[in-house]
Amino acid sequence: MAKNEDLETISLPVLGMTCASCASSVQSMLAAQPGIARADVNYATQSVQVAYQPALIKPEAFQKVLQEIGYDLILDQVHGKEQQEAVQEDQYQALKKRCIAAAILTIPVVIIGMVFMDMPYANPIMMVLTAPVLFIFGKSFFVNAWKQAKHGKANMDTLVALSTGIAFLFSVFNTFYPEFWLSRGLHPHVYFEAAAVVIVFIMLGKLLEENAKFNTSGAIKKLIGLQPKTVHLVRGQVEQDVDVETVVEGDLLAIRPGEKIPVDGVITEGYSYVDESMITGEPIAVRKEKGATIFAGTLNQKGSFKFTANKVGKDTLLAQIIKLVAQAQGSKAPVQKLVDKVAGIFVPVVLAISIVTLLIWVLFGGADGFTHGLMAMVTVLVIACPCALGLATPTAIMVGIGKGAENGILIKDAEALESGYKVNAMVVDKTGTLTEGKPEVTQLMWTTDALKNQAELMQVLFTLEQQSEHPLASAVVKHLQHEVAEPIKITDFESLTGRGVKAMFNGDTYYAGSHRLFTELQLSLPATLLKQVEELEEEAATIIYFSTNREVLAVLAIADKLKEGSGAAIKALQHQGIEVYMLTGDNEHTALAVALKTGIKQVRSEVLPADKALFIEQLQAEGKVVAMVGDGINDSQALAQADLSIAMGKGSDIAIDVAKITLISSDLQQIPKALRLSKLTVKTIRQNLFWAFIYNIIGIPLAAGLLYPFNGFLLNPMIAGAAMALSSVSVVSNSLRLKFAKLN
User: Fold this and answer.
1) Which 8-state DSSP code applies to residue 209?
2) pLDDT given at position 220
3) Beta-carbon count within 10 A of 349 CB
4) Is 516 in contact with 499 (CB distance < 8 Å)?
5) 424-444 residue pLDDT tens
6) Cβ–Cβ under 8 Å, residues 344 and 157
């Protein structure tokens, strides 16, 4: 066993993985190589992390091993992900073209085979049309099956290649040598249409899977896009733009208004307000001055400052979020994986049954033993075709997605849906989920004396806040802009750090700011306003005071309003026996006020993104099936960790990409419907898989001739082909039943 210090760990993109068994093959092949201590494949990110001894094996050897079984590695660790995305996009477009071309050739084959089978030259025409479907457009199934077989492995490609290949060869034989069967009193059936249809259906399934795979990686792409490509590096008195990859710890960097922060660091000069909503989820920007810590991906607002980098590259908080989101996505077990896992066992079993069938007929079938045995063997392979298996999941998902869209619920794929109806704990974010997610003025209360000159004072307040850099100032400006035609001319404007602003107008000094400024001015509120302010503070509103240095003129309450229906939705979930937890980056006072209004009993405040994911992990460790509802970048890690993830349609793109369910209207009252739809969808998938498997369990013994010794019944391959088609129709029909289901 190699010591940890002797090992080097690298993460490399993998090409060619199309199913869970592919990921298993890659992992097992690499792990078996001398010098490799560990290989961990992440199917979600299409990558493998390898811990190896550089003295014994090189990455080029990894690549060669995988190329032998039909996969590939990208060894460029700097631009590997971009290269992988380009290759995957090319493969997707090529697969799409092959699928369309195959379908165009298959349609006439099906029409001839099912309706005009007695027309002149029907069999040769079908053979000519089917050959390119299998061996040109569907070539990858046969190539991959051969590469897997060389290493004693099997996956869905093996089953497709065997069933369609044998059916095609058997049909070709019957086309050229029909007398072989006619002389024995049997009709020489052909199965060209069955072989072609199987290829097209399976290609369509792969096309849907590739499309879902692109959507899954979209969240990580957007997170990566939060970091700017270049930075302003300070050397003495000179600034120069350099690539962010060249920044090292200790470098001095400059940030200008409106720019994203490139790496984690500590401010050394200047100040500004920074939008950290991607981390905290809170809409109000945070004041940052000398000594304050800033994080990569957050957005600077109006000020400028310089800071020293202390975490770069993979060590930044943003990089950790990206890593944890990818890990959480890759740790799930989608419903589709069940098909591939079963196929790994099913393929050799079916092949063994077909061979045993032939041998038994040859040994015990009498004079026509070989003839009956050969036909029975082909019938087994035809009836075991994986068409129904391949359609079981995607058809249910497609219908479920359509049903959800009709009701304002977007379902991304089957991943995590199997846990939807089992949910017994739900974690909800506050800002943007329970609340509107944007601070606004809820009340503006003038004192009696100020009402006499309200119009002019409103202009003063509007102008003061318009020049302020404080994030809440924009809420005041937005509230007053319909009342004030234009700002007035004020003088001696000054920003009072951490307290507010002041300026002169007509010989008076006017102030707008916090309770701290109000206290410093030693002013008092009229009794009529004092009680209202106390009540508003209890409801977690932020209070802004507008005054001169002699008296208070007005009080403004700013709050993030609760969404209509949030309370009713929480009560409905609790009525279903679901425990509801609220997690927020906001302060405890505000969190408790919102919890009181909505009826949530369990609250965690001032939590970071990693804390949310850790809390969900703890609930899961207790045996709970957890749903997470969120809307921000800061929720993406927790959404990925949850068993069922639900995003608000008006939230961030990243939260929507990570989540498996999105509520278009951002109405929490849609969640019970989403859970119902989740239950119906996964129930349909399981029914489809049951019918697909039961069809094989019953059909394969009949095809092998189980009933022949008792009543002389031997299943005709033509009937087997029809049964195969019927199984697909039954799966699709069962999925379509979802369209008429009620979600209330």
Assistant:
1) H
2) 58
3) 14
4) yes
5) 999 998 877 888 877 888 888
6) no
Report CA-CA distances (Å) from 357 to 197, 372, 384, 714, 737: 26, 10, 14, 12, 38
Q: At what angle do helices 671-704 and 717-736 cross, to 10 degrees?
A: 170
pTM: 0.56
Token pair, residue 335, equals 């419903």
Over the stretch 204-219, which tens digit does the pLDDT of each residue have?
766 765 664 555 455 5
Q: What is the DSSP letter of 259?
A: P
Answer whether 154's CB lies under 8 Å from 148's CB: yes
- Distances from the Cα of 672 to the Cα of 21, 414, 568, 603, 627, angstroms: 35, 18, 11, 21, 12
Buried b (16+ CB within 10 A) or exposed e, 210-237: bebbeebbebbebbeebbbeebbbbeee
d(CA 210, CA 449): 68
Write down the H helix ranges in 622-715: 636-641, 653-658, 671-704, 708-711
Residue with tokens 């409103």: 458
- Identify any residues that bridge with 411 across adjacent strands, giving them in sequence order: 661
Cα dihedral 179→184→188→194 (10° resolution) = -140
Q: Which of 637, 522, 627, 520 is nearest to 570 (CA)?
A: 627
Residue 123: burial class (beta carbons within 10 Å; 0-12, 13-18, 19+)? buried
Strand order in the sheet with 286-288: 286-288, 272-275, 299-300
Q: What is the pLDDT of residues 523-558, one digit of tens each?
A: 888 877 888 888 887 777 888 899 998 888 999 988
Q: Which residues are catalytic?
A: 429
Q: How far apart are CA 166 and CA 374, in angstroms?
A: 11
> Residue 559 pairs with which residues in a beta bridge?
440
Chain center to CA of 521: 53
Q: What percent of the chain has pLDDT over 90?
A: 12
Q: Are 557 and 543 in contact (CB under 8 A)?
A: yes
Query: d(Cα 665, Cα 649) in Å, to the nearest integer?
Result: 6
Amino acid at 648: M
Three-state SS at 178: coil
CA trace torsion 149, 154, 159, 163 (10° rounding): 30
Amino acid type, 130? T
DSSP string for residues in 641-652: HSSEEEEETTS-
DSSP strand pairing (644-648 vs 661-663): parallel
Q: Which residues pair with 645 in a beta bridge?
A: 628
In this predicted structure, the answer to whether residue 106 has a pLDDT above a threshold of 60 is yes
Per-position DSSP letters for 547-605, written without gaps between them: EESS-EEEEEEEE-PBPTTHHHHHHHHHHTT-EEEEE-SS-HHHHHHHHHHHT--EEE-
